[in-house]
Amino acid sequence: MGKPANEVESYTGGEESPHQHRHPSHLDKRPLWQRYLPIILTVTIGIALSIVLYYLTLAWDHQRVKADFKKAAEDRTFAIQRSLVFNLDLLQTFEAFFKSRNNSVDAQTFHAYSQPFLQRYEYIKAIQWAPLVNDAERNAFETTVKQSIPDFRISDFNADGQKVPAAQRPLYFPLQYIDPTEGNSIAQGVDLSSVQAFNEVLNAARDDTKSRAISHATIAENTNLIGLTVFLPIYQIDAPLDSMEERRAALKGFVIGVFEIGSILDVAMTYLDERPIEIRVYDKSLPPDRQFLYLYLGQLDSELLESVDASQLTKKNEPALEVVKEFNFAGRDLSVECTPSVGYHLTTGSGWQALTVLALGFLVTLLMAGYFYAAMRHAYHLAEAAEEANQAQSRFLANMSHQLRTPLNAITGYSELLREEAEELDDKSIIQDIDKIYISARYLLSLSEGILDLSKIKAGEIELNWAITEVKHLLTDIVDIATPLVKKNNNALIINCPNSVGTMQTDVTRIHQVLFNLLNNVSEATENQTVTVDVTREYKDGKEWICFNISGYMGGGLTEEQCQHLRLRLSKAETSASETDLGIRMGLVISAHLWHLMGGYVDVKSDLGRSVTFTLYLPAQAAI
To answer: Residue 5 has what pLDDT?
Structure first.
């Protein structure tokens, strides 16, 4: 016997050296910015979030500083208001004092009652008594007072500031008692009604029975009688005060208190924590150019003051930090305005929180970027190792496949020669045995070719050769190859392909492989039955499709759950776990990759108890 014509030599193709090393970046052909997109996004988002958190923390810190300042300022305005009301209450005790003396109080008694107030409360600069004197009683009043104060007379100040006898007027309110007298004696006897500002306040206090105050009060030069002056009206005991006329008729005089606002603020602040907050007091009842009364400078802790330089002290404070409290005191509309003084920002502890959040945000961003970079480097190295393993596997499979094809080609070739000789001898039993050898060898050869294709698929090196072919002719070629496999289980192969199916654009070799594997998969699970191939041309989803319906008994069919499971595995091209499973063999795995490359897909349907149908959909016109 001669050597079979279809026997080929062993595969001796070149191999890539396993020692060649390539950088992991060769695995990813994308631009550099796309490969490192996770790191870029991490850094960008991290920086953006850090900045957003920085400004949110800064805003929160500003709100905290503002709220803290507002509370401290409100505490101060409340303390000032409470202190002023307390002083007014002190002055009003003189009303009860006069009543207890039946409105008859001599200088010694007035002095004895006033002294405890003057000694205890340093902001009370003077307490005075100015009785109401009618013009008709003026001489008698002066004569009576001169018994204790020889130089006393009801007086005015002229334009030169000289003390002169008071001009004649219906009523006088001379300062009879002044405590302390020392330093204030020049004001004794001065008629308060001779000063227009005083006269207006006296009349207002008399008519509404309430204490009235006047700011910027100057009773006399070189005295302590300058400050916030409060006038308390004293009325005749048990006199009716319902009408204005009754109040004027019952008036006996005024107790007058002179208070220094600066000292009142000093005392009010002693009960609060030292804070660098400036306090300005205004009298809104006066014209704008005379409204300012007093400025209280905030205090900065001495230890903190020593630890900072001048530039920090002169730093501007938040302009929005201002608290204004307006209230009425003895008929005056007072306004207390609190603003941060120099160095206030040093006491707030602001700024470091936002900077800490920003620094932590940048640190976390850096750590995450480093983590992603290390993970990507590790992934690239793993991918390189996996690719090298796949290449080694592909090389091994390719070598093994070519090594197997040589003896298998020899077996199939010799089987053909032996069959020819057996046919000449007309020995059917020998022919059947030779056919079994031939079928087994062809099956092993197809597996060998499948291994080679699988290695190409994994390496991404598979290529399709598109050509236009008659579908009916294509199936004729399949019959010659598939008929021996189908008959192996005593099955019959029936192919129905009308001429109307026409042509299709496809890779003839690959579609042969796909149809052969589908037929093989169906025929292996079918015994003593018919395997049918029905071909139709359908139009759906806006495309023309060639449909190959391959049906067989396959053990009595599959349940819908098994069909769904098989569809899923075919879409993913997964192999079966066991040979007895009605699943997917290696040849069908390769076919699944091939029909996906050709733009097709497979559907599985079953008529339980009767048959299973695999429907292969391939586009009639390839999308090249």
So the answer is: 39
